[in-house]
Specification:
This protein is an alpha+beta fold and about 170 residues long. Helices cover about 20% and strands about 25% of the residues. Strands 5-6-7-8 form a 4-stranded antiparallel β-sheet, with no helix packed on it. It has a 3-stranded antiparallel β-sheet with strand order 1-10-9, with no helix packed on it. The structure holds FE2/S2 (inorganic) cluster (FES).
């Protein structure tokens, strides 16, 4: 784009000419606006961080034990030998495992920091994916930074059902 001598970019004074701003007088509006925008961005960033952290906090913090059903029935066919199934019992994840010695059920919330343990068929143990915690089929600690055993959950078995909380 070619500019003629009469078209100057805003704020530029012709050589030898004084600016039309009064000397010594500063305009503070851009500074105030910048600070205001920085505060707004800070508040929005804080809200965004809280929104991003909420699911993580909900994941780590299991719901209160009093919530949820106090009796859960599942089909035996849904837990074939050597496999597990996790259900919600009294508002908490509860793992039911069909071991070679029969069915077992534990509150699946790891006593370390509250992650949900999984059944590892190959090692016949319950493992925590968060920090490598490991439990035996009796719920005892076999490794990792775990302060105590898993809490057993009462169950009974009928011809076709597993009843948790029986
Ligand atoms: S939360 Fe399970 S080992 Fe840390």
């Amino acid at each position: 784009m070619n500019m003629s001598s009469s078209q100057k970019p805003p704020g530029s004074a012709a050589p030898g000419k004084k600016s039309d701003k009064a000397p010594g007088k500063t305009n503070t509006d851009p500074v105030r606006r910048r600070r205001f925008l920085q505060k707004c961005l800070g508040v929005l960033g804080g809200i965004g961080s809280l929104m991003a952290a909420y699911p993580l906090i909900r994941y780590i913090e299991p719901p209160p034990e009093a919530e949820g059903s106090s009796r859960v029935e599942i089909d035996r066919a849904s837990v074939p030998p050597g496999t597990s199934r996790t259900v919600i019992y009294r508002g908490r994840p509860t793992i039911v495992v069909n071991t070679s010695e029969g069915y077992i059920a534990y509150n699946a919330v790891c006593p370390h920091l509250g992650c949900v343990v999984k059944w590892e068929r190959g090692t016949e143990s319950l493992v925590c994916p968060c920090h490598g915690g490991k439990f035996g089929t009796d719920g005892s600690v076999q490794g990792g930074p775990i302060p105590g055993p898993l809490n057993a959950v009462e169950l009974s078995v009928t011809d076709d059902k597993i009843i948790i909380g029986a």
